[in-house]
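Quick start: what a row looks like.
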Amino acid sequence: MALNQSSDPGPDHCQTPSNSTYLTLSWVMVLEFSLGLPLNLSVLYVFIFRFRFWKNRSVFLFNIVVADFLLVACLPVKIFHYRHAVRRSDNPAVCRSLLFMLFLNRGASIAFLIALSLDRYFGVVHPGRQNPVRFLRRTPWVSVFIWLLLLPLTVPTMVTTFECCNSHGRVKETFYHDVTDTFREVVFFVQIVVPFVVLVYVTARIVSRLRRKTVGERTKLRRATCAVMAVAAVFSVCFLPCAVARAALLAVRVSGDQAAEDVAVQVYDSLMVLSYTDCLLDPLVYCFCNSGFKDAYLSTFCPTFLRRRLSAASTTTTAAATVSSMNSCPKKNTHSKLA
């Protein structure tokens, strides 16, 4: 059953264009919450009690866990709204607070993921130089500074009244409201597009370095490549599609075609729901970035027989890579040595 919004083309009352679409999205978020809550709780437990992140210089990873946990905490509210055929709460305080939390989570996840990628970049591409990211990650005050830096970029979601948490291009606004909404849109795109460009550059340089390195360094480089590729996968699946859909939604909204906007809204909200899967994909980044965390997590929650199989498979893969690397080494000319 579709709700007709074209009768009131002015303020957007945030009813869902299609109840069936948003009911399906609510079930998707139920699945994300059901998997994400125990997964992130288990990751938090390992980081604090088994891995001791402050001793293993994994403060950046821990901050991503905190950001993911904040995201998981927001999902029940979004589920409630979608099941009641609305895109947001009728309470302005709830609406702004929820959007603030989602923006803060997204900004923190992106900031710390890029910090991890830059750490791998400096360690691999410029090994002889001082790694500023590695120096900064040793102190928790840098993480506190990043969170505080994100606050002024997220506050515009709370300081103005806007319909459906999103009035840009929808209603005639005052100059103050228009500037605030424009700033929010600019922040939304900049915090995704700019880090993605940086990530593409970092990945390309690391892969290029991997091809030119000697045999003895290839194992380390493969780990760095896997870590950066995992971050790129999170960006490609979770963040980049919703940025493209957001740009399309704003373009359609300016055109004034209500039917096209209803479709664009559903596509955008669907991709936003897909972006919430970063709380499920980020643990893969932890495993690629730090093998110590992977070992601690498996030893805590993985059954003994499965740990043995994984250990045997890892040993076999490592031995095969070593043999392949030895075979690829240029052999010395024994005839010239005898001569």
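That is the whole record. The CA atoms of residues 24 and 190 lie 30 Å apart. The mean pLDDT is 77.
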